[in-house]
Amino acid sequence: MKKYKPTSAGRRDGSVIEYKKKLTSTKSLPHKSLVVGGKSTGGRNNQGRTTVLNRGGGNKRKYRLVDFKLEKKDIPAVVETVEYDPYRTGFIALVLYKDGERRYILAPQELTAGTTVLVSEKAKPTIGNRLPLGNIPVGTLVYNLEIKPEGGAKLARSAGNYATVVAHDAGYTLVKMPSSEIRKLISTAWASIGAVSNEENRLVDLGKAGRARHRGLRPKTRGTAKNAVDHPHGGGEGKAPRGHRRARTKQGRPVGKGQKTRSPKKYSNNFIVERRKPGRLMTSRK
């Protein structure tokens, strides 16, 4: 992590990740056959209506086709490069399979060029390898977890995230999630060994509004500053209180400050062994 010197108001408190120390090369272009173009939605749906607020503008980006299914089993692959991906917080790695095919995968911490990774039921539980949850020893850190076998990685994919294998029981594996929730996953679902790369991402301080605009983030207007017709917190004379107990979104749903938003009848409730802990404990993963 590099912190800028306060040579100007915009530089004060700003910080950036030192990509030269993390990536194979900061000047190399992505693999052409694994890149597609695309327009920014600006937070709008197919009818042109804004469904996600505070999005728009930003630098143009190219989408890297990252392999989250990882169905090429029992074929060793060598890591060629570790690269930056503008669409995700973690780094990605370009791997060359023994049959000559190249693909992008989500890179774990400590993965370097020249390392061999393998997707196999008989693979060793080492960094970058992928195997069924039932074959992973208790206490191992994993990422890119599947919810259903062969369904593709869905859990623990953000920068620095990981889950921990807690126990094996009757065809299920108990896994402690990044949120501190302990949940049952079927033991035939696959997971990769390690933790997602770029763990310093959460420490970055943008320092100025311009860096946020480059990322496609637009200014956000507080709900209390709006009219009553535009937001549940709006209206009133001066700095009026919001008028109801719980904070709400523009659509009227509860939000923030530890308020529960999960449906009490959600289909996957039966697989939760221990609920996530509220407050600071969620970030410390205790």
From TrEMBL:
<dbReference type="InterPro" id="IPR022666">
    <property type="entry name" value="Ribosomal_uL2_RNA-bd_dom"/>
</dbReference>
<dbReference type="InterPro" id="IPR022671">
    <property type="entry name" value="Ribosomal_uL2_CS"/>
</dbReference>
<feature type="compositionally biased region" description="Basic residues">
    <location>
        <begin position="277"/>
        <end position="286"/>
    </location>
</feature>
<dbReference type="InterPro" id="IPR005880">
    <property type="entry name" value="Ribosomal_uL2_bac/org-type"/>
</dbReference>
<feature type="domain" description="Large ribosomal subunit protein uL2 C-terminal">
    <location>
        <begin position="125"/>
        <end position="254"/>
    </location>
</feature>
<comment type="similarity">
    <text>Belongs to the universal ribosomal protein uL2 family.</text>
</comment>
<dbReference type="Pfam" id="PF00181">
    <property type="entry name" value="Ribosomal_L2_N"/>
</dbReference>
<dbReference type="GO" id="GO:0003735">
    <property type="term" value="F:structural constituent of ribosome"/>
</dbReference>
<keyword id="KW-0689">Ribosomal protein</keyword>
<feature type="compositionally biased region" description="Basic and acidic residues">
    <location>
        <begin position="228"/>
        <end position="240"/>
    </location>
</feature>
<dbReference type="InterPro" id="IPR014722">
    <property type="entry name" value="Rib_uL2_dom2"/>
</dbReference>
<dbReference type="InterPro" id="IPR002171">
    <property type="entry name" value="Ribosomal_uL2"/>
</dbReference>
<dbReference type="InterPro" id="IPR022669">
    <property type="entry name" value="Ribosomal_uL2_C"/>
</dbReference>
<feature type="compositionally biased region" description="Basic residues">
    <location>
        <begin position="212"/>
        <end position="223"/>
    </location>
</feature>
<feature type="region of interest" description="Disordered">
    <location>
        <begin position="212"/>
        <end position="286"/>
    </location>
</feature>
<dbReference type="GO" id="GO:0015934">
    <property type="term" value="C:large ribosomal subunit"/>
</dbReference>
<dbReference type="GO" id="GO:0003723">
    <property type="term" value="F:RNA binding"/>
</dbReference>
<dbReference type="InterPro" id="IPR012340">
    <property type="entry name" value="NA-bd_OB-fold"/>
</dbReference>
<feature type="compositionally biased region" description="Basic residues">
    <location>
        <begin position="241"/>
        <end position="251"/>
    </location>
</feature>
<dbReference type="InterPro" id="IPR014726">
    <property type="entry name" value="Ribosomal_uL2_dom3"/>
</dbReference>
<feature type="domain" description="Large ribosomal subunit protein uL2 RNA-binding">
    <location>
        <begin position="43"/>
        <end position="119"/>
    </location>
</feature>
<keyword id="KW-0687">Ribonucleoprotein</keyword>
<dbReference type="Pfam" id="PF03947">
    <property type="entry name" value="Ribosomal_L2_C"/>
</dbReference>
<dbReference type="GO" id="GO:0016740">
    <property type="term" value="F:transferase activity"/>
</dbReference>
<dbReference type="GO" id="GO:0002181">
    <property type="term" value="P:cytoplasmic translation"/>
</dbReference>
<dbReference type="InterPro" id="IPR008991">
    <property type="entry name" value="Translation_prot_SH3-like_sf"/>
</dbReference>
<protein>
    <recommendedName>
        <fullName>Large ribosomal subunit protein uL2</fullName>
    </recommendedName>
</protein>
